[in-house]
Amino acid sequence: MTMQFLSLQYYLAVGAILFVIGLIGFITRRNMIVIFLCTELMFQGVLINLIAFSQYTGNLAGQAFVIFVLVIAASEASLALGLVILLFREKNTLDADAWRDLKW
Amino acid sequence: MDALFAVKYSYLIPLLPLAGAIIAGFFGAKILRGQSHWPIWIGVAASAVITFSLLFGMMGLWHDGKPMSVSVNWYTWIQAGSFKATAGAFFDSLTAVMLCVVTGIGFLITVYSAGYMKGEEGYFRFFAYLGLFIFSMTCLVMGNNFIMLYLGWEGVGLCSYLLIGYYYERPSAVAAAKKAFIVNRIGDFGFGLGIMLIFLTFGTVSYFGAGVGTHTGVLELATLPIDQLSQIPHVNASWVPTAMKWVPFLLMLGAFGKSAQFPLYVWLPDAMEGPTPVSALIHAATMVTAGVYMIARCGTLFVSNHAAMLTIAAVGAFTALMAATIALRQFDLKKVFAYSTISQLGYMFVGVGCLAPVAGVFHLVTHAFFKALLFLCCGVVMHAMHGDLDMRKMSGLKRILPKTNWLILAGCLALSGFPLVSGFFSKDEIIGASFGLSTFLGVVMLFAAFLTAYYTFRLYFRVFQGPLVVVPPPHDSHGHGHSDEHHNHEPMLMILPLVILAIGAITAGYINFPATHLGDFLGTSPSFSDSYNMAVAQSAAGPNLAEGMGHVVAAETAHGPQISLLMIVSGLISIAGIALAFLLHLKNRALGDKLAEDFGPITRLLEGKYYVDEIYQALIVNPLHMIGEFSYRFDRWIIDMLVNMAGWIVQLTGYFLKFSTQRGYLQGYGAAMLLGLAAILFLVFMH
Prior knowledge:
The complex is a heterodimer of chains A (104) and B (687). Chain A is mostly helical. Chain A has helices spanning 8-28, 32-57, 61-91. In chain A, helix 1 packs antiparallel against helix 2 (32-57) and helix 2 (32-57) runs antiparallel to helix 3. Chain B is mostly helical and 687 residues long. The longest helix of chain B has 49 residues, at 612-660. Helices cover 73% and strands 3% of the residues of chain B. In chain B, helix 2 (12-32) packs antiparallel against helix 3 (37-63), helix 4 runs parallel beside helix 17 and helix 4 (93-116) runs antiparallel to helix 21.
């Protein structure tokens, strides 16, 4: 069976779109959970790039790397959500601006 | 056989006291507490047993005509390029004698200390330091290379520092500890340089290399003529003349520091701040004799250098005389004996400097007995007098300290060289040797002997004879007064070691008289026999000075009639000194006090110790303090200011940025990162 692959540009386009959606969300939203979700979106955009290039060059290292990143992202996500819950309990709001005074 | 057995387990000699020190140090504070002396007692006693079996075994072999000198290596300690230092020991008669002095007297003093230090704060600390000291000192005397010697040398210096500063809440004790350490550093600097020069020249730091007679170690290489040395690959033959000129002086500097000789003697009187057993063990019997041991051990490096030998003899004689005169007008019992120790060490240096190392080591052994005894007796007095040692405040103590009276009398007789007591024989040999070098030197030594007898018995008659005067107990408000009548000032734990020491102080002279047992035994040490042969060869070759030295060598081995005449003279001189002290300090004390008044300026000069401390303070310490003060201020106000300025600039910048860019909005940071990244990418791809 022969497999027909899409050319590299499509993958990169999807990755870039995901990344930019995440970026815009990160900059415009103030809800901490949404901000966090947006960073995850940016992650996935980058990972699609990795897989695409891995496929393109025939080097499996990129794909293996992706697995590692996903695992670490998952554990980091649980940690971050835990933090968000703590922050919520403290101020009873999810608004990131509520924590502005941390800069002092 | 027995000796070889002891050699096989020789590594236990330093390690057992070290193990004791570790146990006492780590478990003393909480678990052992008042029993902290046990690990040290056991460790030091065990290593004393090994050393004495070594000594007797070696003497047995010597009687069989097979004197032993053997080098054992336990393991390679340092290996870097051609530099190699092994952890190992060298055993010959000199090592055995020194080891027995260290562990034997060390053991007696640890026993005494348990009585003396009873109930002191930090009891375990004292014994841990004591064990560490015995470890270092045994390393020093049994090491088979200069690095082991240096290890022990610095180790005993450290223990000396720790023990002088034992009462660290007393500022004077802390100052004395620092002084001892710093003055010793001056000497050790020279000593370290000497060892480096030895290595650079001879390519090794081992005393006897692969063994005696193989001419692979420093001390035997030094005996070889230069054309033979240039055949040996690791010897830098072109440096040998320079090294033979300077190495003795550099090593000598270390010896003068450790053994408290002029001009580095100033630390020893102050070191009396330490507990009395420490004064006895470290600052009288063992550590301070390390310099004498080192010069005796390295005889072959010194003998061919006449200037160095003369310097040693001259410095020793000058110190002996100077310290003896200072001791005339000291009032603190321990200070008198401290100056006396300096003076007696001067005698030992005269011994080794006059090419009579046997006499030097002989005096070292007898001195270890009687001076340890005298210091420990001071400790008994100190306890009875509530810590006061001013002899103006006490008199006639024989009534309350009857046992100590006899013990200290034995020590005083030995120190003053009373006929047929140990100090008499050993001092006499040194004086005989000094007459061989120069009559002037001999007369100086005889005069110092007279002073010694006088100041020793001044102390004895003032403190132990005459009407009873005691120091009243201090009036402490919270006093739980243990009344003097019920308090035993002479517990057996303290008196028993003193009895043994007193027996030694009386009889130790007979190990080298009338038959020169000690001399013959020590003569089997390659250090002694090689330097003797060198000296004989030089005196055969002939120029002026070597003749005198050769004569000494001959006299020392033959014990001619000259020595016997000298014995009568020095015996009379000692008795004269004692008689004068009897007259001025017992029979007619008022006359003695009046004489001191009449010679006011001299009295004050002696009481001020020739103002040497003040001179050092003005010429060395104060300028150094000023440099330090200046450096401190420069560092504080200039350097620190510049460094802080860098910090302040950053802080200031940050402070303003808080109001402009760093506003606390997460989104703002995200946007800034994005823009920054975009700018960098833009710059990168523009090129």
